Amino acid sequence: MIGIHVENEGLARAVIADGRGTIKASCREQCESPERIVEVMAGLVNRLSGEYLVRSIGIAAPGLVHERGIAFALKLRWRNLPLAEPLETVTGIPVYVESTARASVTAERWTRMGTRVEPDQPDDESDCGRSDARRATRGGLSTTARPQRGGDA
Q1: Among residues 120, 28, 34, which one has the least CA distance to residue 73?
Q2: What are the C-alpha distances in Å from 18 to residues 116, 130, 146?
Q3: 20 with 110: CB under 8 angstroms?
Q4: How far is residue 23's CA from residue 13's CA, in Å, rounded to a whole number?
Q5: Element containing residue 23 per DSSP (H, E)
Q6: What local confidence, expressed as pLDDT, does residue 118 receive?
Q7: What is the DSSP string of 53-112?
Q8: Is the pLDDT confidence value at 136 over 50?
Q9: What is the pLDDT of residues 80-132, one digit of tens each?
Q10: Beta strand 64-66 pairing with 146-147
Q11: What's the rounded Cα separation, in Å, for the pair 66 and 132?
Q12: Are 12 and 3 within 8 A, CB to CB?
């Protein structure tokens, strides 16, 4: 899997990791233009995928995000930006898009670094949360073995 994180400053960082989450390689490139972001991400994927079989690409992006792209990223001033379909077309690899906060919670669950609310629960039922106020107010919450979205019941 290749993971790409689009940061609030327009920096795109990409890593390739194995099934255990061990990072095998990484690279980054600055991109402040929404018109170039898919091209930049495709270049990162090409640089990383030479030695490894890549089955999927995950994108973590700031702001309001839906499963196909960015609805609105305040600090980047990007609106209605499709990411999944154009990157899938260029690379031929399935692409999944998620908010930075929700992707962080998923990573916490995978690496078992999240705070467990009830330590006696089985791992797949434990709750965890993550917040990051260094660059923006954001956070995520995972309950009953799945990250929650705004509006989830």
Answers
A1: 34
A2: 25, 23, 21
A3: no
A4: 13
A5: strand 23-30
A6: 47
A7: ----EEEEESSEEETTEEEEETTTTEEEEE-HHHHHHHH-S-EEEEEHHHHHHHHHHHHT
A8: no
A9: 999 999 999 999 999 999 998 888 777 777 666 544 444 444 444 444 444 44
A10: unpaired
A11: 20
A12: no
Residues 6+ apart with CB under 8 A from 150: none
Element (H, E) at 143: strand 139-143
Pairing mode of beta strands 69-73, 23-30: unpaired
Neighbouring C-alpha atoms within 13 Å toward the C-beta of 129: 7
Q: For residue 46, give the DSSP letter.
A: H
Confidence of residue 148 (pLDDT cuts 50, 70, 90): low
Contact present, 65 and 6 (Cβ < 8 Å): no
Looking at per-residue pLDDT, the higher value among 30 and 19 belongs to: 30
CA atoms within a 13 Å half-sphere pointing along the CA-CB vector of 32: 2
pTM over 0.70: yes
Q: Percent of the chain beyond pLDDT 70?
A: 70
